[in-house]
Amino acid sequence: MDTITHTLFGMTIYGAVDKRQDDKKTKIAMFVSAVGASQIPDSDVISSLWDTEGMYQMWHRGITHSLFMVPIWALLFFLLSIWFLKRKDWRFLWVPLIAVFIHNTADLFNAWGTGYLEPFSSIRVTFGTIPIVDFVIWTIIAIAFFARKLWNKERHLLYRLVWILIIAHVALQTSQGYVLYKQYEDKYEQVALSASFLPWHFSVIGKNEHTVEIFDDALFTSPKLQYTLKSADEADLDTLFTEVPEAKTLYEWSPFVVIVDDKERLGIYDPRFYRNGQSFLFEYIEKQ
Question: Which of 20, 97, 98, 268 is the most buried (most CB within 10 A)?
């Protein structure tokens, strides 16, 4: 998910905590813990500063987004809270634990995926059923925020309801994506999903041999073929990988790629991000 969504997640986690007996200092610490823990996995962006081998695509959303890093990040925030508050409050362990878990798990559902099982597996886990910016989630949170004055029960119960609605939305959309995926699975050798910004709509990308087809589809509508792409799978990519290390990283990172080998360029791109005649994840070299 994007930075704004993760920030909103942190604020909603903070809102769901019962703070009726807390003083101002504790509330400030709780807010920083909830929002900070919701952002901390993305601290891996600094790895781009020392990336000289084109590995950033793998490093970003890599080990910092691992399921096994969740308790480590939570413990860090817990220790910081002890230092700041000069006392133990176990909420400062489980709130960051929940926040980091939500961050790492939520990122599984969009097309970018994460290294959820690192360091034990380098597999990039991605479902592609939720867009990186989900306006349904934003809308649910916004309605709760503006309706909070009308809520006649305890405020934290309102934000717990928000989480129930978000989980229901993710479950509903993901189940629809799964059904669509299974429908295409028998038709193509390889299939990938990329959720549209329009709720319940998906780009379904299927590959058979050298042909990649991209459909706009939803469970309750007829599929629309958007693009048919040809991949030069027989091309030798050694030169490309040597001159552009990012291309090798992209090749390993993507579920499958389209290979371009024409008179002008040799390159590869991820078809999940193909829009208006090009993919913004495209690595290539110009031919002499």
Answer: 268
Q: How much is the pLDDT for 58?
A: 58
Helix, strand, coil tally for the chain in percent (to 5)? 50, 15, 30
Order of all β-strands in the sheet with 190-195:
190-195, 201-208, 211-218, 224-230
CB 92 within 8 A of CB 30: yes
Supply 163's token pair: 């989480």
Give pLDDT, residue 16.
96
Sign of CA dihedral 89, 95, 100, 105: positive
Of 21, 157, 39, 154, nearest to 89 (Cα)? 21
What are the tens digits of pLDDT across the range 89-127? 999 999 999 999 999 999 999 988 888 998 898 888 899
94 is written with which tokens? 């489980």
If you ran DSSP here, which 8-state letter would residue 40 be given? G
Residue 80 is encoded by which pair of tokens?
């910081």
Beta bridge partners of 268: 259, 283
Extended beta strands in the chain, E state? 190-195, 201-208, 211-218, 224-230, 258-261, 265-269, 274-275, 278-279, 282-286
Rounded CA separation 92/18 (Å): 13
Ordered DSSP codes for 86-147 = SS--THHHHHHHHHHHHHHHHGGGSTT-B-TTTTT----B----S-SS-HHHHHHHHHHHHH
Cis peptide before 223 (omega within 30 of 0): no
The candidate with the shortest Cα–Cα distance to 226, out of 210, 211, 205, 207, is 205
- The secondary structure of residue 236, as a DSSP letter, is -
In this prediction the pTM is 0.90
Burial of residue 179 (CB within 10 Å: 0-12, 13-18, 19+) is exposed
